């Protein structure tokens, strides 16, 4: 029997934030890192003014390389507590070990999340689960997907938390690491969270467009995609002065920008037809992103060819190859209902950029 058929866990989950009257999407917002009392209080005040109810702030930051800002540490916990006292926001932070859990719970956090690097480590997740169980506290726990695209590992992490007696569990989809340069910092691989939803329909799922995109300009479109896929909420990094943030500054937005993003989201309920204009536009956005990814992939192959040509002292432009390619694609394109002129224009623009990149390599 497969694990999927066998798995009866997480069927009796409770609402993540029972005291709050939250409409979809649940919004969790706050800085990547807690930096100073003034920074968290100012950010929280602005977020609360804009209607946000749940505040995030990283106290301990797992960094890929040593030497980066590894978090302010426990001195920041009283500042989070002050956020709660002064604004009424619920407060949350990331935990990666037993000590973090104990310190965070003592500071009165309402929710903790397990980061992507930690979710990938069953020993660490088990240590967190044990600490939560020992505390006996009823707290919300969100589990980010592991950095690698492994759904079973993600589910396993949530089951460890569930087995510790926690019933307020949610998943955070923050995309998956991949090698090389891409449009997104972490690839969404939407089919993975969609499969998670299929297997655990009652598990709340929150999208983290900040860590998926790594770029503030892309947060709105990924947030909309998540809502279109029926996600329950969004966790978005927000800072009162994003450009001077100590970590992840390119993906943080001011509370006011966050407000604009949230207000422009189209929330469709399941009965709304998907054949409306907004939904079609979303499809176009997604296809455009995919087109861009494909073009970048093509350019990478082009550069590979450029290096080969350089090594073998071959000319960059081989007219006969280009003519054959054009002829074939124009024919195929016409069969698919597009004009020959359109295909020629597109292909020559792509070819022009490929030649430019190859010339750069050959002349290096
Ligand atoms: C974070 O939420 O600030 C964070 C470190 O995210 P992730 O674990 O998704 O990289
Ligand atoms: Mn971050």
SSE layout and pairing:
Elements: H1 3-6, E1 26-30, H2 37-49, E2 54-56, H3 77-87, E3 90-94, H4 98-106, E4 111-114, H5 116-119, H6 122-135, E5 140-144, H7 151-163, E6 169-173, H8 191-199, E7 205-207, H9 209-213, H10 219-228, E8 233-237, H11 255-264, H12 277-311, H13 319-335, H14 340-362
Parallel strand pairs: 1-2, 1-8, 2-3, 3-4, 4-5, 5-6, 6-7, 7-8
Helix pairs in contact: 2-3, 4-6, 6-7, 10-12, 12-14, 13-14
Phosphoenolpyruvate binds next to loops.
Short characterization:
By secondary structure, this protein is of the alpha/beta class.
How would you describe this protein?
- It is a single chain.
- With 364 residues, the chain is an alpha/beta fold.
- Helix content is 49%, strand content 10%.
- The chain has helices at residues 3-6, 37-49, 77-87, 98-106, 116-119, 122-135, 151-163, 191-199, 209-213, 219-228, 255-264, 277-311, 319-335, 340-362, and strands at residues 26-30, 54-56, 90-94, 111-114, 140-144, 169-173, 205-207, 233-237.
- It has an eight-stranded parallel β-barrel, surrounded by six helices.
- Helix 12 crosses helix 14.
- It is elongated and about 75 Å long.
- The model has no long low-confidence stretch (mean pLDDT 93).
- The site of manganese (II) ion (MN) has 4 residues, from loops.
List the defining traits of the structure above.
alpha/beta; 8-stranded parallel beta barrel; 14 helices; 8 strands; binds phosphoenolpyruvate; binds manganese (II) ion
